[in-house]
Design a protein that fits this description.
mainly beta, Immunoglobulin-like, 9 helices, 45 strands, about 15% helix, globular
Length: about 625
């Protein structure tokens, strides 16, 4: 009897120790958690288990070897889809291994008009045995599925029965600047496409950095592109046409207030970008009769035309935000929780240059909102943001095998998509690391310096967000370089996007050491006047916040003019403008001894526009500026 009990115990332990397939998943829609999802598990075609995630978006499913599985994901607001797991071809000697695979389930809303619903007749992902020790995603299959999920927008359709090939419309996108210099954009000007007969195909306008987009265009009809050039004519001016990748396409000389290009087929082809998206950003200011303040550290939502949240982010200390991936010719809502704007308060949207755009004038659901259309109208153009104007922060925690083993004092290396090192940082004692205010990257990788082979002690490296949510389990292989290649959904969990602002470092660092101690602002004044315009006050409000935050900082304010007018008049005008800025700051309670104001007139021009040198209005505008120099105490 005793021997039988021992035998049963051994068999029981063997069963417990036998390996299995574990699927760890995270249900998401548009990078946000999706709760209350029904999951059906079919083993060899037979329903074996039904799960409801209820108030969570996470789930764990344990599966046996020697079977194939279809796992269905069901939510009333989303397309039903399924995951295929092939577990019937794993050798018996490998079935003692616990094989863990983690993935995000990218749900798609039923209201998304860009989705080809027929794609979901196939599995959205296949998980297979790697032939060694783990289950992995079938990359090639997944790539093919992702190509089918969006409705196709090719340039040429399939042949019809009568052998006539029908051309389908495309998206043309580009950027226009002066003299091959993308820092001199032709902004807020009407751009028009013409056919060979001079008929207008479509018109739009450039945004604040010279970019434009035309949708629903048949390239066979395109002959000429024309833009208003009334502010940029000079004997040396040329208009440069770039595509959306900033590759120069062609140039032309403006004449009679316009500039035009006769586009060759190859040039038209280079302007096609059916996957084109843009970015928007700005700053929110909450105002009432008593005060104005930055709408700082608050949640702001980007919603589609159905008011469904597709992105959300948090404003920074200056009330600034950025949203990526905006498709052209679509309707959106910017929204904040309605409780955040009280009675008698108004929420204003400013653009990157601190100019007032519009206030949030709509109530949509439980949010105070502002409707925008991405068809390159005046409102949308004013809040368009280029990637050069975006910064990113990366934040995460690193553990070995389990969340009780933080990897402290570990050197984390950031690489771009070409594996070039961008920066490095050490984790703290809790395994946390932060990269701050770096140039924006769409794609990046993370590696770790495995000095003294500290990583070799662990089978898995765990990546967590700073709010302690598991992002990724990475199998660690001894002798191989550790590298983490986050997918899009994971990138959004560890990356924060900042709207570039030179004052931000001075506000967020306890011991600020800005990369450049001179900050240039295009504070505008009316011709020959010194009164501060609303945009100038918004800039100076940031200066006041910085001076109140960092009591050790002193600044020098210097005002500059263009070369038009006499030297003496320009010098006097600049001195008065610098003094006006100083007076505004000291009126807010800042000690005048912390500020120096100087007017330089046209003494320090930024370009060649000296005396009677022919220059465009855009080039003259570069020289009209106020500079703030950060002084050591």
């Amino acid at each position: 009897m005793k021997k039988n009990i021992i035998l049963l115990f051994v068999i029981f332990c063997f069963v417990l120790s036998k390996g299995q397939i574990t699927i760890i998943g995270h249900n998401e829609v548009n990078n946000s958690p999706l709760l209350n999802t029904t999951i059906q598990v079919k083993q060899d075609g037979v329903l074996k288990e039904t799960i409801n995630t209820k108030s969570s978006n996470n789930f764990t499913i344990k599966l046996n070897f020697n079977h194939n599985y279809l796992i269905y994901f069901i939510h009333p607001n989303c397309q039903t889809m399924f995951l295929e797991i092939k577990g019937d071809n794993i050798p018996i000697e490998k079935q003692e291994i616990n094989m863990v695979h983690e993935l995000n389930i990218p749900f798609v809303l039923k209201t998304d008009g860009d989705i080809d619903t027929s794609a979901f007749k196939k599995a959205f992902c296949k998980i297979i045995f790697d032939g060694n020790s783990k289950m992995i995603a079938d990359i090639e299959y997944n790539k093919q599925f992702n190509k089918t999920i969006l409705k196709k927008t090719p340039t040429i359709d399939d042949k019809k029965e009568n052998n006539v090939i029908e051309e389908l419309p495309v998206i043309l996108s580009g950027q226009i600047s002066l003299n091959k210099n993308t820092k001199l954009p032709i902004s807020n000007q009407i751009v028009t496409l013409f056919d060979k007969n001079g008929k207008v195909i479509k018109s739009t306008s450039t945004n604040r950095f010279g970019a434009f987009t035309f949708t629903e265009i048949k390239t066979s009809e395109v002959y000429k592109l024309k833009i208003n050039a009334k502010d940029a004519e000079s004997s040396t001016a040329k208009f440069s046409l770039f595509n959306s990748d900033k590759i120069l396409i062609t140039e032309s000389k403006p004449a009679n207030g316009f500039c035009e290009w006769i586009l060759k087929p190859a040039e038209i082809k280079n302007l096609i970008n059916n996957l084109y998206t843009s970015n928007i950003g700005g700053k929110l200011v909450l105002s009432s009769a008593q005060q104005k303040k930055f709408f700082a550290n608050k949640t702001i939502y980007l919603c589609n035309k159905y008011n469904t949240i597709i992105q959300k982010t948090t404003t920074n200390i200056l009330g600034a935000f950025v949203f990526e991936g905006i498709k052209p010719d679509n309707s959106f809502f910017l929204g904040v929780d309605i409780k955040e704007v009280g009675a008698g308060e108004k929420l204003d949207l400013l653009n990157k240059d601190d100019n007032y755009v519009k206030f949030f004038d709509t109530i949509a659901g439980n949010r105070r909102s502002l409707k925008i259309n991405s068809n390159y109208n005046e409102l949308f153009n004013s809040i368009s943001i280029s990637e050069d104007e975006m910064k990113m922060n990366l934040n995460a925690k690193v553990y070995g095998d389990q969340a009780t083993k933080p990897l402290g004092r570990l050197k984390i290396i950031l690489l771009n998509e070409n594996y070039v090192v961008i920066d490095s940082v050490l984790t703290d004692d809790f395994g946390a690391f932060k990269f701050k205010y770096l140039p924006f990257l769409k794609r990046f990788y993370l590696s770790a310096n495995n000095s003294d082979n500290v990583l070799d002690a662990f089978k898995n490296i765990l990546i967590y967000s700073l709010d302690d949510k598991l992002i990724k389990i990475i199998t660690n292989e001894k002798g191989k370089r550790f590298i983490y290649k986050p997918i899009d959904a994971e990138i959004n969990k560890i990356k924060d996007i900042e709207l570039e602002d030179p004052w931000l470092e001075l506000l967020t660092d306890k011991n600020p050491k800005p990369r450049n101690n001179t900050i240039i602002e295009n504070i505008l004044f009316e011709t020959n006047k010194t009164d501060l315009l609303p945009q100038a006050k918004e800039v100076l409000n940031k200066v006041i916040l910085v001076l109140n935050t960092n009591k050790t900082i002193k600044i020098e304010i210097s005002a500059h003019t263009d070369s038009k007018g006499t030297d003496s008049d320009n010098l006097k005008l600049s001195q008065l403008r610098a003094k006006t800025a100083l007076n505004y700051i000291t009126a807010a309670g800042i000690d005048a001894e912390r500020i120096i104001s100087i007017g330089y007139g046209e003494e320090k021009l930024l370009n060649k526009c000296v005396g009677y040198t022919p220059c465009s209005e855009i080039e003259h505008a570069q020289n009209r500026r106020i500079e703030f120099k950060i002084l050591e105490n």
